[in-house]
Amino acid sequence: MGISFNGNDTRCCVSSVDISKNRLILFSDASFGHDIHPMAGGFVLWMNGPISWMARKAKFIPQSSCEIEVFGVTMVLKEGEFIKQVCDFLDAGLEAPTACITDNKAARDVIMCPGATKRTLHFDRWLHFARSLHLNRAIEVYLAGTDDMMADGFTKPVDKTKFLKCRDYLLTRT
Questions:
Q1: Which of 2, 24, 58, 105 is most buried per CB count within 10 Å?
Q2: Crossing angle (nearest 10°) for helices 105-112 and 65-89
Q3: What is the pTM of this model?
Q4: Is 14 among the domain residues?
Q5: Which residues pair with 46 in a beta bridge?
Q6: How far apart are CA 72 and CA 45, in angstroms?
Q7: Which stretches of the chain are DSSP H helices?
Q8: Contact 41, 151 (CB under 8 A)
Q9: Peptide linkage before 97 cis (omega within 30 of 0)
Q10: 123 Cβ partners below 8 Å, 6+ apart?
Q11: C-beta neighbour count of 37 within 10 angstroms
């Protein structure tokens, strides 16, 4: 098994995502309820190969699963923006917009709908980063089913079946 970058392989766990050779695809997930300070993480795909991953413990106590999921999306978007800058420097010719995949509908809705509500007021300052990318059409946010979220292995303990599914999605059998 190994990592390969194959732009001709057009597989994605979310069927509505337009896969193209030079498009970044970001996966974000978070665990809520397992610990006081839950984990958030994700990875970045380019040409169907993983080029970056991250997993961090939140330094705050989230009040909802939406809050920790938005934190995870923001974290992976920052990584994606850095990778886009590197690719621009290397003249890789990335296609826009970047696809960002999450499995939390509330987080997706909060990012896509500008404005603060009573429930989002306490975390809207760092949320503006994700919203501004969406409003500037730099990202498209997609919703994946829980079974199709390939970033689960970075944020929570998973059973063997889910682990193998996530591993096989990221690695190529040779």
A1: 24
A2: 60
A3: 0.84
A4: no
A5: 24, 49
A6: 16
A7: 65-89, 105-112, 124-135, 160-170
A8: yes
A9: yes
A10: 67, 70, 71
A11: 13
